[in-house]
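Weekly sync, protein design subgroup
Attendees: M.S., D.O., the rotation student, P.L. (late)

Item 1: inverse folding check
M.S. brought a backbone from last month's batch and wanted to see whether the design step gives back something sensible before we order anything. D.O. pointed out we never logged the input encoding, so this time it goes straight into the notes. Structure tokens as presented (325 positions):
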């Protein structure tokens, strides 16, 4: 297939693009490089340096050749920041996504795979299924939910087949491809930066949550497993017009557990600074991914936290300055 990948210079998008190319697909990457890296774009991919907010450029790009599918990874992802500057997220994550969907439909694209999020759900002590209560705790989660809802209307009106893949916490690395956000906000790379001597301490934001050790619990999924689910969903859209799946490992790990595992993996003491809660952080988000197991036969192959952190540590040690090293 010929696939248009937005955000293909980022952590997940660039890795997905590389796996798509290895599977024999043609890939065009559309990225503004606001948070991505030109060095992360696979050499075999066609690259367009442009912003999704440029409607004329976007429409021209999608009409320039026949695309079979759009894979949409481009978004701001910091949930805490979305509670401080919601307008930034409404413009980039929501308005620009709506523009992309409209342009794709106009160009006759038949399949659309959305990078969505577990942040669409209400926090729950029980593992979250696709039927769990929807109630985003932050503006970031709201923007992703709104894009899912827009895709449903484009399915009904224009026949656009779509998959909304609700990620839990992506982590780990592939050979030569790791996590390096601008700025970094994710727990595992932040903790590993302490072990590298690039930060003085790891931060725990909130120690009074209703969890066994008082810190937030999250479900982590290795990037290789995440991408394998994208390829399965892309193929399944041939026969299905609407797919909504959770993508998680099914196990919840607290912030303290992640830090302790990183200590073992790196051999570094990793000091900690405790701070108050951040607005919008849910106490617990853990996945039930039974639906995609059942429907598409997807099965995570890298679900052990130690192995996930070890793969990330190997990348960070060999790329201490991210894609600039």
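Designed sequence read out in the meeting:
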């Amino acid at each position: 297939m010929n696939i248009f990948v937005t955000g293909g210079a980022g952590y997940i998008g660039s890795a997905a693009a590389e796996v798509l190319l290895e599977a024999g697909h043609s890939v065009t990457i559309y990225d503004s490089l606001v948070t991505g890296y030109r060095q992360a774009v696979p050499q075999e991919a066609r690259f367009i340096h442009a912003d999704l907010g440029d409607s004329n450029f976007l429409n021209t790009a999608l009409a320039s050749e026949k695309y079979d599918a759009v894979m949409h990874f481009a978004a701001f992802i910091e949930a805490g920041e979305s509670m401080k500057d919601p307008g930034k997220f409404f413009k980039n994550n929501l308005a620009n996504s709506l523009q992309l969907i409209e342009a794709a439909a106009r160009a006759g694209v038949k399949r659309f795979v959305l990078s969505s999020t577990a942040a669409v759900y209400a926090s729950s002590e029980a593992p979250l299924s696709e039927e769990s209560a929807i109630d985003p705790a932050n503006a970031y989660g709201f923007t992703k939910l709104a894009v899912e809802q827009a895709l449903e209307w484009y399915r009904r009106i224009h026949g656009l087949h779509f998959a909304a893949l609700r990620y839990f916490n992506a982590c780990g690395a592939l050979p030569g491809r790791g996590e390096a956000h601008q700025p970094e906000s994710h727990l595992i790379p932040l903790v590993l930066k302490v072990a590298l001597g690039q930060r003085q301490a790891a931060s725990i934001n909130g120690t009074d949550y209703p969890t066994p050790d008082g810190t937030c619990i999250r479900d982590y999924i290795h990037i290789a497993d995440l991408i394998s689910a994208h390829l399965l969903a892309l193929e399944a859209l041939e026969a299905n017009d609407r797919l909504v799946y959770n993508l998680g490992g099914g196990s919840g790990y607290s912030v303290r557990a992640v830090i302790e595992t990183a200590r073992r993996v790196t051999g570094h003491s990793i000091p900690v600074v405790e701070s108050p809660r951040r607005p919008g952080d849910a106490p617990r988000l853990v996945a039930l991914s039974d639906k995609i197991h059942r429907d598409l036969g997807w099965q995570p192959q890298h679900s052990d936290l130690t192995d996930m952190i070890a793969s990330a540590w190997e990348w960070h040690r060999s790329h201490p300055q991210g894609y600039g090293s």
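Discussion: The first strand starts at residue 2 and ends at 6. The first helix runs from residue 11 to 22.
Action: P.L. to compare against the previous round before Friday.
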